[in-house]
Design brief:
- By secondary structure, the chain is mainly α.
- It has one domain.
- The chain has 9 helices and no strands.
- The protein starts with 5 loop residues before the first helix and ends with a helix.
């Protein structure tokens, strides 16, 4: 069912490189373009709303449609989609709270908590898991339809810059070199491309991978990004969350995605 033609492969390559590149650009901001750091929080708020809307209004409904057409290789009941959604949510929750003991989407200032190199590498591993599933999500969407893949890409792209910025700042806060900080953001980009490649190689599991990715997307938006929005005073950041939702709804209305 999920045929992959040359045009879709080229699109996947373009989106994957762009998403991975955003991680690298985010990492370079912490080492070079300091004046741009203040704007990353706006990407976090906008991305939180867009990601939540994408997971609830696009990824989960498409997952239900796929199961209705093909069923699941693991479960054969309607609620199997939601089992995979929960699995995606709690897999990231598990890794984030066991493997990566401390990170948040912002420049790291708590140097006393990041005084040891192993803490920064643990955080890097946790973020690698995030970015790997970013790639899985984009590829899963593309295997269903071009429009779904592009929408998921847009949702993920909005938090790619803060993601690269975060891992680089953690490295610097733990005493690592600027080169190590930059390389850590490149590793995140590589993990995104790896997740996409794996999904294209295993396209027959898209009916399971898409709802799993929806759970991951929900976790990143609701448990990682929204708390960062809540840290900021004033109504500006919460309003950007609503704007993110509104953009997704506008895209649905204009392009019937």
């Amino acid at each position: 069912m999920f045929s992959v033609n040359a045009n879709r492969i080229l699109l996947a390559l373009l989106l994957g490189i762009t998403a991975a590149g955003a991680n690298v650009v985010g990492g370079s901001l912490i080492t070079r373009a300091k004046s741009l750091r203040r704007y990353l929080k706006y990407f976090i708020a906008l991305g939180a709303g867009f990601m939540l809307a994408t997971a609830v209004l696009e990824m989960i409904p498409e997952s239900l449609k796929l199961q209705g057409e093909n069923g699941s290789i693991f479960f054969h009941r309607t609620n199997s989609v939601f089992i995979f959604v929960l699995a995606g949510y709690f897999v990231v929750h598990f890794f984030e709270h066991t493997v990566a003991p401390h990170f948040h989407f912002g420049e790291e200032t708590h140097t006393e908590e990041m005084s040891h190199a192993h803490a920064s590498y643990a955080a890097l591993l946790g973020l690698v898991i995030h970015t790997f599933f970013d790639g899985v999500a984009i590829a899963s969407g593309l295997l269903v339809s071009t429009s779904l893949g592009v929408v998921i890409f847009l949702a993920i792209f909005l938090h790619k810059l803060p993601e690269g910025f975060t891992v680089a700042s953690l490295m610097l806060a733990s005493g690592q070199s600027r080169r190590a900080a930059f390389l850590s953001s490149a590793i995140l980009g590589g993990a995104t491309l790896l997740g996409m490649a794996l999904m294209f190689a295993l396209g027959n599991v898209v009916a399971e991978a898409l709802p799993f990715s929806a759970g991951v997307t929900l976790y990143v938006a609701a448990s990682d990004l929204i708390p960062e929005v809540n840290r900021e005073p004033g109504p500006g950041m919460p309003l950007l969350v609503f704007l993110g939702v509104a953009i997704l709804l506008g895209l649905k209305y204009l392009f019937h995605v």
